[in-house]
Amino acid sequence: MRTFMKKDFSRQFLCLVFFLLVAYTIFLQFIAPVLYGEDSYYHVAVAKFIRQFGLHYDFHWAQFSTFKEFFSDKDLLFHVLICPFTYLTDNIVLAGKYAVIFFDVLFLLAYLYILRKYLPDFLVACFLILPFLSGVFYAYFTFLRPTTLANVLFIFSIYFLINKNPVKLFIATVLFTLSHLFFPLIFIFALITEAIRYFSKKEFYLRNIYSVLLGIALGTIIHPNFPNNLLSFHLNVILVPYYSFLNVPISFGGELSSGPTKNVLLEEFVVFFSFNIIIWLLLVRRIKISFSTLVWWACSSIFMASSFISNRYWYNNIVLFLVFFASFVKDLSDTFQPGRIITKSRYFILSYLCVLVLFLKVGLEPIVKLFESQIVLNGDYEEVGKWMLKNIPANEMIYHAYWSDSPYFIALNPKNNYLVVLDPMYMLYRYPKEYMLYSDILKGQVQHPYKDIQGTFKSKYAFTRKEAPFYSQMNNDHMHFKKLYDTNWSAVFEILPQAEETEKANTKKEIRTKKK
User: Fold this and answer.
1) pLDDT 10s digits, 111-158
2) What sign does the dihedral 450-454-456-458 (CA atoms) show?
3) Three-state DSSP state, 237
4) CA 228-234-238 angle, 5° bins
């Protein structure tokens, strides 16, 4: 009877924690009037395009990008799953918030399902909380990005590999190939799993390898943008990491670099602290490590190593690491006191959680500042996008200083066209000369930017944040630029139609002056 009551309490505690996390997820979305992150606007916009135009359409919104002629929806399944939320409301930001909540709850359910394979309900509840002690997880969890769906498919794929379920593994691989460009990692995970299985059990399960290869092949071929998706794979999976690793001076997003060591240690303290505990336990105890624990560790270690190069991989790493930790705790329980780990270790568990909570404020402080800045900046973009929709004629090309400007406007003002979206690599690869010119204009290194904005980029309108160096050029050149709209953070200019004639007149005047 006492055991039954304990199990009943643990289950109730788990349900309470789960529903509190769901409520907190909803709270995070609706505490701000905007979506978090610039990519969130792009993803909900593309979902709406699929609803309006179907799976095959011309992506004319990025005129100086591979998207214009070789568009591939690299996150196809992710966008298809967002589509239903665009029917619920005409407010595209609100639709995006509904979608974020859906994917977050989907992740929590998947994570809960996998944890219960290794831990009793009380510890599952504790492990559900742990990811929220990671700074990067906390941030990415609020974004509408395909990495959350990727985490769901990652943990299921690895679980199917461990338990030799080739049919489910095949389905998961097809879905992953249609959802995210990092699908080759499933093949790498399969090789790792079978290598560990061979050395620990003298068995190599080839069906896992075949299932993954067939899943990747099928997912690649049935993609509606095939073969353009092969170019997208080349750009994102090969060239972007390669250029980023070599520190090629391209204006990639900050997530492609690693932060200072101190910040990383504080923001991901839950990983380093937990890993330190695991090492100590292995040193002072003889623990029989299971096959599943070895696989989870090997797969998570790939992301851990990558995280020191690029910040964005911490989001994947924290999830796989904690599942590895859960599997390790099961090994610890099975080795010494099966079924009694909570009873004998409750003071240790309490101390562990207390230490993590002590570092919580310091670790999450940068993330809180990120949210605050996002609310201000994204609110400004939304204001400008809505103004453009009302005041700029349809089909006009709008010049913008940063590649990260256009996701907002594609979502909020889809009647106009822009330069490039999501990543500068799409512009650099297809229009290298234009990209170099675009970079020089941004830096304020072009003496008469209106010439190239009008001529090369065919734009009558230009948007820029006020922090951009060439903003002062436009703001001070009243002969060629007319400010149409101004906010605290940005401005929209019209390039005056007589600009070219004025330049010719000025040139003639300079020639006469020199002759005199």
Assistant:
1) 999 999 999 998 899 899 888 888 788 888 999 999 999 999 999 999
2) positive
3) helix
4) 165
Report the distance separating Cα 256 and Cα 88, nearest Å.
34
Give dist(CA 25, CA 498) in Å, integer: 53
Span of 59-68, 159-168, 243-252 with lowest mean pLDDT: 243-252
Give me the phi and psi of 495, to 5 degrees please: -85, 115
Q: Is 261 exposed, middle or buried (0-12, 13-18, 19+ CB in 10 A)?
A: exposed
Planar angle of CA 419, 423, 429, nearest 5 degrees: 75
User: CB of 419 within 8 A of CB of 63?
Assistant: yes
Q: How far is CA 264 from CA 227, 231, 258, 346, 409, in A?
A: 39, 33, 8, 29, 33
490 has which bridge partners?
465
Cα distance between residue 64 and residue 50, in whole Å: 22
* CA 83 vs CA 88, 107, 160: distances in Å: 10, 18, 28
Distance CA 240, CA 246 (A): 10
Q: What is the pLDDT of residues 200-246, one digit of tens each?
A: 989 999 999 999 999 999 999 999 999 999 999 998 888 887 777 66
Q: Is 203 helix (H, G, I), strand (E, B) or coil?
A: coil
Neighbours of 164 (CB within 10 A): 13
Torsion angle of the four alpha carbons 321, 323, 329, 330, in this order, in degrees rounded to the nearest 10: -150
pLDDT score for 294: 94
Among all chains, which residue has been given the structure tokens 């999450």? Answer: 364
- Over range 66-93, report the average pLDDT: 95
Tokens 């690299």, residue located: 74
Sort residue 120 into left (φ over 0), alpha (ψ -120 to 50) or beta.
beta
Give, in order, the Cα–Cα distances in Å from 248 to each of 108, 231, 240, 241, 443: 38, 20, 10, 10, 17
Q: Could you give the 3-state DSSP secondary structure of residue 61?
A: coil
Q: How distant, in Å, are the alpha carbons of 138, 165, 210, 291, 297 from that of 169? A: 29, 6, 10, 18, 19
Q: Which of 137-151, 199-213, 272-286, 392-406 is predicted least confidently?
A: 272-286
- Contact status, residue 103 vs residue 457, Cβ threshold 8 Å: no
Dig out the tokens for 165 from the structure.
């379920």
d(C-alpha 168, C-alpha 162), whole Å: 12
Separation between Cα atoms, residue 457 and residue 399, nearest integer Å:
7
d(CA 417, CA 399): 9
- Quote the radius of gyration of the chain (alpha carbons, Å): 26
- Is residue 449 within 8 Å of 473, Cβ to Cβ? yes
The residue type found at 436 is M
Q: In this structure, are residues 503 and 439 in contact, taking their beta carbons and an 8 Å threshold? A: no
- Quick check: 92 and 385 in contact, CB under 8 A? no
One-letter identity of residue 128: L
For the chain, the residue count is 516
